[in-house]
Give the backbone structure.
Amino acid sequence: MPRIARYSGRSARYLPAPLPSRSIDPVATLTVVGDVHRWWRSADSTFLERSRPDLSLFVGDLGDEDVEIVRLVAELPVPKAVILGNHDAWQSFGRKVSTPKLQESLSLLGEDHIAYSVREVPRGGISVIGARPFSWGGPSLRSPELYDEIYGIHTMRQSAAAIVDAARNAQHRDLVILAHNGPLGLGDQPEDIYGKDFGKPGGDWGDRDLALAIQRIEGSGLRVRAVIAGHMHHKLAHPRGSERMRFVRRGETLFLNAAYVPRVRQDAAGSEQSYFLRTRWQAGTCVGVEEVWVDVHGNEADAVAPAIVDIDGMAPVVDETQD
Ligand SMILES: [Fe+2]
Ligand SMILES: [Fe+2]
């Protein structure tokens, strides 16, 4: 397992300011919406419409196979890319076949659901690659039948190959991967970014197909600059009340977990604020990460750069022969 540099004043580093020589390059904003779980307010739409990010990214778990919340997101008049989560296909996994609700969700989102495909962000010098949707995390696909029906995929290896194919079609060498759950290999403690905190806590709950895809993509000379996902909520079930480490870096790759759940909190005066994660990109490099809180009028109330924790060592080598 990789050795994790625990949070401390010394191990946490903030992203450097952009180099002066790059100042002529435009800066693109990618604003991330973590697991929604039905916490969506009209102020959130107002914020996205007013702040006009180059792309809004949704990591899924909009609701529990809830077409109306999918419709709200699909109808937002802003550029967006979505990867649906396990909750968005909850009943379909139970039946091992897509329900009319899941079919309608996918049809509402159309090309904005970027599973196994690419969305270009030329202003930031990056391509956004969609990983496997509906992930539950852990070693199993849960329903190979469902993935087979929708994507013609029924193993982790096939899923990894489909992510790699999408990356090969990208126009940029610098990539951001959008996923519902993050990859295997970032730690096996409950508080690690994709560590298992439920059931019998402990163990790495990352996606093996995504780890394998990253290994192959980087082996082909492309650069995975960030993996943006959610699914593993910020408050841990065990140890109860503890918080997950959600922002880490290994080598040149940032791993950002946007699952602050519920994403709406009350400020000191009892007024609601909702959570966004804002990233800025210049010439293929991430030049800023901020956690942003938005008030009931859709205005930014607070923005703080989180500490990014460095993970020592190389990515673990993923067994390419295992299905
Ligand atoms: Fe979730
Ligand atoms: Fe989830």
